[in-house]
Amino acid sequence: MPDPSAEVRDLDLAALAARLAAIVDADRLLGVLLDHAAEVTGATGAAVLERSALDGLVRIADRDSSLGEQLSIGDVRASLWGVLLGRTQLRWSRRDDAPRPFREVERWDRGAVVRIASRRGPTKLLAVGGPDLDEDVDLRHLQAMADIAAPSIESLELASASRRSQALLRGVTELAGNLGAAVSPTQLLEAITSGLVRLDGIAGARVWAAADVQDPSPVVVAGVEEGARLSGRSIEGRVRRLLDPRTGPAVRSLVESPARIEPDGPLVTLMALSTDPPRALGILHHQPLDELSQGVLASLVTASGPAMREVEMAAERRTLLSGYTRALRPSTRPEGVELAVEHHPNTSAPGSFGGDFYDWFTAGEDQAIVALGDVSGKGINAASAASMVVWSLRAIGGRGAHPTVISHLLNGVVARDLAVDRFVTLALLAVDTTTWESQLLLAGHPSPLLVAGGDVTVVESSPAPPLGVDAVNSAAPPVVFALDRGQALVLFTDGVTDATDATGERYGIDRLRARAERLTAVPTWSAKTLAAGLWHSVHAWAGGPPDDDCAILVVRRPE
Question: Which of 75, 241, 314, 535 has the smallest set of CB atoms within 10 Å of its CB?
Fold first, then answer.
């Protein structure tokens, strides 16, 4: 006989899932989760805790928990480590059995903690407690709540990351420009520190140098601090060791690790600049730095030495920007799929960036997602918008959603977050790598070429508007087909067919198709030779780099 209480729980979880899916604000989402968990368990206090960079816990959401903002976990034997690592769940009914962070907190005689699983970002915990907590609280039900909330939390965090990436890209661009304008080491260091404090999450920056060759005593040579000071004997001692040439790599690594000036105070990260003589960079931040900020800092530190040489300023600006945009490129290629790309952004303006973008990743066990798109416009604003689309595409498509669903959700993101005069064309391909059944969706994007048995044809599909043109996107259904062994799909942006020769004549789709037929007439052709050959043909037709961004992406099923 069915358990009536189980049916009630299922309805309860379904209602929670529907409610969380409609929330677009992270703070409100966590608040709803805590209210629901407290109501179901009878808890008087609840909190969402996040693992910090210093192996502690940070309280990021709270419902009358009385917990502090920073909680210490303890060593690897502590029970909370088992929850953080997904090995166990916790429940206690006596204060003596509570984990250390909860033991001294009022009203946590009873409590329970489960893990909110996430594929990216810091691990989170859902904690509930109080004297009225159900003594036999169902940990499976509480875990189910956390599991339901996890995808929504992750999606909102990825959306936030995409917005941070835009802000960081603009900040790094401005900072790199200021480095190029510097005419002295002092101006360069001032540009670094002033640019850093404008980045999200950084409250202060300072640069020290050794007093002289024989004395590693730190002397401040540049700095910008807002509301807090990068000073004190402990900081100066660490900087002294960083500037001392006798300090070994292992000690240097420890010195550079984030640390607090005082208990519960701000974090300080030290980094050795690649300059001669050596200099130390210190940054002040109240929260652990995310991966984007760390990447910016790493590029900056690597660039600091060459940037000191005035003749290399312009080249260094390109290095900083290129290093950042490379973080948006796909890394691991889907297994069993032959991929090749020729990507030439804003090719007539070396050192700048455009709006063409591409990505590929595995979604689920047997599905590969390949995307090629074009943000309207050029320059840094288009590149920033492209980065936002890439982050959103990974967030939405990484869970194996149908191409139509991905397009619909991306359209909402583009319509909401981009300027009213900016839109995105997209070619989205989902391939089942076991059957090679493929689904192709085009949103305002040029139709690709299908290379099949020596013949090259244009893949026809129902027309659909670009993303962002209308908040309610009526995307056409995807074209469904199967790639046989040795067959390939050639995706490209409009910069390829719009390339013009000296008389103004366009390269066009017919030339592209004819060139693809010649390149694939030889038995030894590959995705790489096809993409390279097509780009060489476009480049030769234009007599050099075309005026617009160009991208060619070839997806081939191996023989």
Answer: 75
pTM over 0.90: no
Helices (H), 399-507: 403-417, 494-497
Give the residue carrying structure tokens 């693809």: 516
Strand 218-225 with 437-443, pairing: unpaired
CA-based angle 111:114:116, to the nearest 5? Answer: 140
Measured distance CA(431)–CA(429) in Å, rounded: 6
Helix, strand, coil fractions of the chain, as percent rounded to 5:
40, 25, 35
Cα–Cα dist 413/404, whole Å: 14
For 208-234, what is the mean pLDDT?
77
Give residue 397's identity as a one-letter amino acid code. Answer: G
Helices (H), 308-455: 313-326, 379-397, 403-417
Spatial distance between the Cα atoms of 382 and 424, rounded to a whole number of angstroms: 10
User: In the β-sheet with 279-285, what is the strand arrangement from edge to edge?
Assistant: 218-225, 202-210, 279-285, 267-273, 259-260
| Helix or strand holding residue 376 (H, E) | strand 367-378
What does the pLDDT look like over 109-155, one tens digit per residue? 899 999 998 776 788 999 999 887 877 788 888 999 999 898 888 88
DSSP secondary structure letter of residue 506? B
Q: Which of 462, 542, 466, 464 is nearest to 508 (CA)?
A: 542
Q: Among all chains, which residue has been given the structure tokens 């030779």?
A: 529
What are the backbone angles phi and psi of residue 47, rounded to the nearest 5°? -155, 150
- Euclidean distance between CA atoms 407 and 51, whole angstroms: 33
